[in-house]
């Protein structure tokens, strides 16, 4: 489906839901150009790969609750990717904006590049894995779930960048203190 021809995110989401509910095993969204709220609220059961080509706008895959759905983005995503996600998997080949995984309760969010500030804000479950680094305040107000960052965490609050940080069920302050001491995995 060529997203640039439809443009309206609600019409795009209706069509994706229709294809998903009809049992499609693969859905392709081509020529994305910053559209907001794509895949918002997609729910259900069914093994499906959704391929997204291009950069997508804010709140991509927000409130995704489809356990066997895998979303692969060949591009970058804006702020709020996977906000409120309950199940499913989102893989971003590029970078992500601020608050990736905000209020995430389940599922997996993987970002190959960098992510902005406040990754995992209010997170209660699931996994966020970032191959690049992040801005500061990672895991702020997190009550569960796992955040893994293989690159630097930039945090002005503690004075600079740290080479590698792994955050696993650890309060933000303890993880940052480990990074400040130079501990790495």
Q: How much of the sequence is in beta strands?
A: 25-35%
Our measurement of the CA-to-CA distance between the termini, rounded to an integer number of angstroms, reads 42 Å
Largest sheet: 8 strands, mixed
- Give the overall silhouette: globular
What is the number of independent domains?
A: 1
Indicate the CATH topology: Pectate Lyase C-like
Structural category: alpha/beta
Strand order of the largest sheet: 1-2-3-4-5-6-7-10
**Total of DSSP H or I helical runs spanning 4+ residues:** 3
Q: Which CATH first-tier class would you pick? A: Mainly Beta
Q: Taking Cα atoms only, what radius of gyration do you get, to the nearest Å? A: 16 Å
Q: If classified by CATH, what would the architecture be? A: 3 Solenoid
Helix content: 10-25%
Mean of all residue-level pLDDT scores: 84
Spans of 5+ residues with little confidence (pLDDT < 50)? 156-166, 168-185
Topology pattern, helix = H, strand = E? HHEEEEEEEEEEH
Structure summary, number of beta strands? 10
What's the CATH superfamily, by name?
Glutamate synthase, alpha subunit, C-terminal domain
């Amino acid at each position: 489906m060529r997203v640039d021809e439809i443009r309206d995110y609600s019409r795009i989401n209706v069509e994706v839901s229709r294809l998903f509910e009809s049992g499609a095993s693969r859905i392709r969204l081509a020529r994305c150009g910053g559209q907001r709220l794509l895949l918002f609220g997609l729910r259900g059961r069914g093994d499906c790969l959704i391929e997204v080509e291009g950069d997508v706008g804010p709140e991509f895959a927000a409130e995704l609750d489809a356990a066997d759905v895998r979303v692969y983005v060949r591009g970058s995503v804006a702020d709020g990717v996977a906000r409120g996600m309950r199940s499913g998997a989102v893989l971003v080949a590029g970078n992500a904006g601020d608050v990736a995984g905000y209020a995430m309760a389940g599922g997996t969010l993987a970002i190959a590049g960098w992510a902005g500030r406040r990754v995992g804000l209010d997170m209660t479950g699931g996994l966020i894995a970032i191959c690049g680094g992040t801005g500061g305040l990672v895991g702020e107000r997190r009550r569960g779930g796992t955040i893994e960052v293989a690159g630097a965490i930039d945090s002005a609050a503690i004075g600079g960048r740290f080479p590698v940080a792994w955050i696993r069920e650890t309060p933000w302050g303890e993880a940052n203190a480990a990074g400040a001491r130079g501990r790495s995995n």
